[in-house]
Automatic annotation (TrEMBL):
One of its GO terms (molecular function) is DNA-binding transcription factor activity. Gene3D superfamilies: 3.40.50.2300, lambda repressor-like DNA-binding domains. It comes from the Bacteria. Coiled coil: none annotated. The keyword Membrane does not apply. Residues 23-37 have a biased composition (Low complexity). InterPro entries: HTH_LacI, LacI/GalR-like_sensor, Lambda_DNA-bd_dom_sf, Peripla_BP_I. Keywords: DNA-binding, Transcription, Transcription regulation. It holds the Pfam family Peripla_BP_3. The lineage of its organism: Bacteria, Bacillati, Actinomycetota, Actinomycetes, Bifidobacteriales. This is LacI family transcriptional regulator.
Amino acid sequence: MNQQQSFDAPSGSQSGTTGGKSAGTSNASNSANASNAVRHRGHSGPARTSSVNIRDIAAAAGVSTATVSRVMRGNSKVSDATREKVQEAIERLGYVPNAHALALTTPPNSVTLVVDHISGGTYSEMTAGVERETSDRKMMFRIASTGGKWDEPKPILDDLLSQRPRLAVLTASDVIDDPIDDVLNDYVDKFKSVGTSLVVLARPRMRLSSEIAVVDYANESGMYELTKYMISLGHRRFMFAGLRRNSSVFMARYHGFLRALREAGIEFDLRCTIPLDGDRAATIANTMAMFPAVHGCTAVVAVTDEMALYVIAALRKLGKSVPGDVSVGGFDDMPYAEDLVVPLTTVHAPFGNMGHMAVKIGLDDFGRDVTMPTQLVVRGSVAPVR
């Protein structure tokens, strides 16, 4: 796991040897007798669940205890082949870190937030909400970053499991049909066994187990209200900036946009969309290429405030003023939105309150599904059609 503090079982104090021999040396008797060692070992030794401990995993996989620890932490300095051997041994022997031993390094009265990235307005507000709610409860707060690497979730979840927090809040992938949901479901019982509750933040439930709580927000209705407001000012020719078909969050916003147009009897050419692209130059180029093709366009609805800024930059390069020639609306209400030269009309997403709610729903059994409301914020970037 990237950019995080590591709180492992007391295996770090081990020498990395088993029975006087290097656990990193392939030894037929070590591997073959790993299960027997599980049955006959006494109460001393490293963190364990039942009678399985980290030395048994090392012996079964033919590696050192230090290597096992690195695999469990998601350390990148382990080959794929070695990682597969260790993970196979962990699953085969049913290893879960012992809660009592882990208490030496991780307070059970803790909340861990797992995010894709530390930076960014969305993440910073949610992080602040989780941290404040945790602090108000006199609990320990920890944060970990995946670096966006949810494509390999097991090392992330194994490391989180070893920390044994009272609550784990995850900003897991919102990609439609992402296998991460199935992996999380497989880990539910493991987390329950060490007393950890799970909450997924800022996305819909999709295929998640009912044992995992979800805090979502009103993306569809929020974009519906923004689009409906722009229609009320006389706009009939629209572009949509930020289409990403595999995102449950962004597709909900797109569906809200289409619903408002449909209810108003406004036809929309589905080709009048700009794909979501985090690259500023690419988005500006795409907007400049698309806009002249949408005859009479007076309004652009952007899936995020960031996309709205890129669209405004493109329109200015085309000699169009905002909102004089074209109205532009965004979504999220980032802190900078009201401080722009033309303050941005947008939809406020309560990211901070969502962070608070994630802790409440996880610790107070406040239901299993909560959808936080969004709110239209009218500023200067949207005006009546001239």
